[in-house]
Amino acid sequence: MRCPKCGSTRTRVTDSRETTNAIRRRRKCEDCGYRFTTYERIEQVMPLVVKRDGTREEWDRNKLLTGIRLACNKRPVSYSTMQQIVDEIEEQFSGRQEVDSSEIGQAVMKKLRVLDEVAYIRFASVYLRFHDVNGFIEAVEQVRRPQKPPEEQIPMNI
Ligand SMILES: [Zn+2]
C-alpha cells in the first residue's frame, strides 16, 4: 500500500481489526511517519438505483456516505459510525436487482433518527425538499413527538 502523503511504498500495518463486514487496518509510512486507515470489504452485489424520474443509476457507496457526512457535519457522530450506517444499508439492499432511491432515503432517515436528531432533520430536509413538503413537516414532528407515550398517571386510592 502506497503512502497517500509521500508516495513511499514502505508502509506497514500497525493494527488490524475485524468489523461486521470489513477489516480495518491502521497503517504507518516508514518514511514520513504518516498514519492512515484502509478498509478491506467484500464487494457486495448492489442493486441499480431507480430515481424518481424513472432513470437508473449505479449504486454509489460514496454518494451515500457523502450525504450522511453532510447531514452529520459538526455533530457528535464518528466517521466509523457513518461508515457503519452505509454498511448496514448495503447489507439491507444487497442481492436485489433494483431499489427505489426513496427507499434508500427512508432507510437512512430511520438510522439517523435514532442517532442524532439534527443530522436526521438535515438529511430529511435535503432528501424530501423537492417532492414532499408534508413529509418533511412530518419528519420534524416525529422528532418532537416522544418515542413512547408518557406513562399514565395512576390515581391513588386513599
Ligand atoms: Zn509517507
Automatic annotation (TrEMBL):
Domain of life: Bacteria
Cross-referenced PROSITE patterns: ATP_CONE
GO biological process: negative regulation of DNA-templated transcription
Keywords: ATP-binding, DNA-binding, Nucleotide-binding, Repressor, Transcription, Transcription regulation
A Pfam family it matches: ATP-cone
DNA-binding listed as a keyword: yes
Keyword match Transmembrane: no
Segments forming domain ATP-cone: 47-135
Molecular function in Gene Ontology: ATP binding; DNA binding; zinc ion binding
Family label: Belongs to the NrdR family.
Job description of the protein: Negatively regulates transcription of bacterial ribonucleotide reductase nrd genes and operons by binding to NrdR-boxes.
Name of the protein: Transcriptional repressor NrdR
Species for this entry: Thermobaculum terrenum (strain ATCC BAA-798 / CCMEE 7001 / YNP1)
